[in-house]
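Hi F.,

I've been meaning to write this up properly since the lab meeting, where we talked about keeping a consistent format for the predictions we share between groups. The idea is simple: the sequence comes first, exactly as it goes in, then the structure tokens exactly as they come out, then a line or two of notes. No screenshots and no reformatting. I'm using this chain as the first example so we have something concrete to point to.
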Amino acid sequence: MQKKRLNKIDNISFQKENCMSTSFTSNKFDTVFMANLIHVIKNPSLALQECYRILKVDGLLIIATFTNQGMKPLEKIKLGFRFLKVWGKPPRYTHSFSLESLGSLMESAGFTIEQAKLLGDKTKTLYLIGKKK
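Output, unedited:
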């Protein structure tokens, strides 16, 4: 649905890629947006390095991803059951990042953290913006 609405905008395109080794040239993009991905891939560090490579200088990496940071034990259990019901078995590789651990991982890939927030009441989301210098 989003793709249909956004494909009318000239400077937005959709392309399926391996996030750890894309076909894009270096320094190509102003912004990379990663939603609900980094916590379920085998090598998050490699994906962040690839984002850094394909971003222009002063380009932004925006990450929004699930976390169990700040969730009460009962909410974690409820979320687990909802996940199983909707999606089935969890992905093979899962990481539970905190703001600090994901921020540190982004910094080790070369990003300067511009913004880092924990969002949500019961279910939590990490929201970070990193800038390529």
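Notes:
The chain has a mean pLDDT of 91.
The chain is about 30% helix and 30% strand.

If this format works for you, I'll send the rest the same way.

G.
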